[in-house]
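Researcher: Quick test of sequence recovery. Tokens follow.
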């Protein structure tokens, strides 16, 4: 979907750039009959030149605005695409401090951990912490490199790699 919006912004930019290019005079853009039907044949050569100049300026102003709009849309798209990418996690990379709801019985791949703030995290690595039984323990979920997140139970050094699912 993002690529589609980026392509549409590029197409808008291309169209705006073509409008910004020097437009031929009205008499070249219209057929003779359209020119006569519009009553433009009644204009003096000076009046026709003034009308063409005004249209040229007007087209230039519209295309400048369209180009700037397309550029801004492209900037927004690029910023959205950078969220969650790159060497670090990108986007919101602040640690989450909360408590687990209910009883904690150790780490295990595939386990889901629901925090008191409503977030749900799923363990995606094989870290284990056997023999632990705690009720509503304090936890910290910290960002790591390459978009990884690590959940750690207060009082233990073992961390589990997790991903947020809710």
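Model:
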């Amino acid at each position: 979907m993002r690529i589609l919006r980026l392509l549409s912004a590029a197409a808008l930019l291309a169209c705006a750039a073509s409008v910004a290019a020097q437009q031929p005079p009205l008499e070249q853009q219209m057929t003779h009959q359209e020119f006569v039907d519009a009553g433009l044949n009644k204009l003096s050569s000076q009046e026709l030149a003034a009308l063409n100049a005004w249209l040229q300026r007007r087209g230039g102003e519209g295309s400048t605005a369209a180009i700037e709009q397309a550029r801004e849309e492209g900037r927004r798209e690029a910023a959205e695409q950078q969220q969650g990418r790159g060497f670090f996690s990108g986007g919101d990379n602040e640690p989450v401090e909360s408590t687990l709801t209910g009883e904690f019985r150790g780490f295990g791949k595939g386990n889901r951990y629901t925090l008191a703030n409503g977030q749900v995290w799923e363990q995606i690595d094989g870290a284990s912490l056997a023999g632990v039984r705690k009720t509503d323990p304090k936890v910290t979920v910290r960002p790591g490199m390459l978009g990884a997140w690590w959940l750690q139970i207060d009082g233990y050094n073992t961390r589990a790699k997790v991903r947020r699912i809710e």
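The longest strand covers residues 138-143.
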